[in-house]
Design brief:
single chain; 114 residues; 11 strands
Length: 114
Amino acid sequence: HVQLVESGGGSVQVGGSLRLSCAASGDTIGRYCKGWFRQIPDKEREGVAGNEGDGSTSYADSVKGRFTVSQDSAKNALYLQLDKLSTEDTAMYYCARDPAGAGYYGRGTQVTVS
């Protein structure tokens, strides 16, 4: 089955940017629905950005205009560009393949905005 490994998180000041990467192995992600989720302690995981198999994208209202999801099928990777970060974006970020189905998730990468 597919394995997902996120990277690129870190600490950043308000208004700053980060680029998260999700490297997939064991299977392809290109033709599947996939996306980015985030979670803070004691809160439910929430969807941030989605990327369908046909390349179409969707975003949570809270990140529209600030976050951009993209994929590189040749590298079997998914990315999330985070711009204009606010303290409310502080969370553990996870990438997922087929979240509504088999639900493969990585272990996450922490983003802290202060």
